[in-house]
């Protein structure tokens, strides 16, 4: 036995589907079942984003980390600590040479044409760093450029020698000769 077709379905099947009818059907579907579509649609979109975007990126990152872990670690050689004072200690003169250097300053001043009158010297106590100072003062007279060349030649000859001070005095402005006080410091190894 056949069931009779309700009258509202008969009329719907006979009418052709138009754009307005389709729009109306979609709007009714959205109004009646909108929350269900949103509730199912958003998780579906999130799941697709996770499966297609995030997981492949994490797999690539994990593969690169595994490759980095498998790579051998660079070998670091232990370097023995160096003495930071080694370059300074290399220029220190032995304590026994201080009088020899004082005599050499006197001779060098005389050889340069300067007129040395004396060499004053003074010993300083040994510092906690393990060196001592030997202060030398050399009063000379001569032309200023010769005095300057003399001082620089001494600094080149003795690496442990430092020029601490130069005092120049001239009696008259037109005079070629000046009187100079050259103060040197000779750095010495601590006596043993």
From TrEMBL:
Transmembrane helix is among the record's keywords: yes
Keywords: Membrane, Transmembrane, Transmembrane helix
Annotated transmembrane regions: 34-55
UniProt name for this protein: Type II secretion system (T2SS), protein M subtype b
């Amino acid at each position: 036995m056949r069931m009779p077709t309700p009258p509202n379905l008969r009329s719907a099947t006979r009418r052709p589907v138009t754009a307005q009818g389709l729009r109306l059907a979609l709007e009714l579907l959205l109004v009646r079942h909108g929350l269900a579509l949103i509730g199912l649609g958003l998780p579906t979109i999130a799941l697709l984003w996770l499966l297609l975007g995030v997981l492949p990126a994490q797999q690539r990152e994990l593969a690169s980390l595994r490759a980095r872990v498998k790579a051998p670690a660079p070998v670091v050689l232990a370097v023995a600590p160096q003495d930071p004072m080694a370059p300074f200690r290399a220029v220190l003169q032995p304590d026994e040479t201080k009088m020899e250097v004082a005599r050499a300053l006197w001779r060098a001043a005389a050889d340069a044409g300067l007129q040395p009158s004396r060499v004053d010297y003074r010993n300083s106590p040994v510092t906690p760093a393990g060196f001592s100072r030997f202060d030398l003062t050399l009063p000379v007279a001569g032309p200023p450029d010769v005095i300057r060349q003399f001082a620089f030649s001494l600094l080149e000859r003795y690496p442990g020698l430092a020029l601490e001070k130069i005092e120049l005095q001239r009696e008259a402005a037109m005079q070629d000769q000046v009187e100079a006080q050259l103060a040197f410091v000779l750095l010495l190894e601590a006596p043993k």
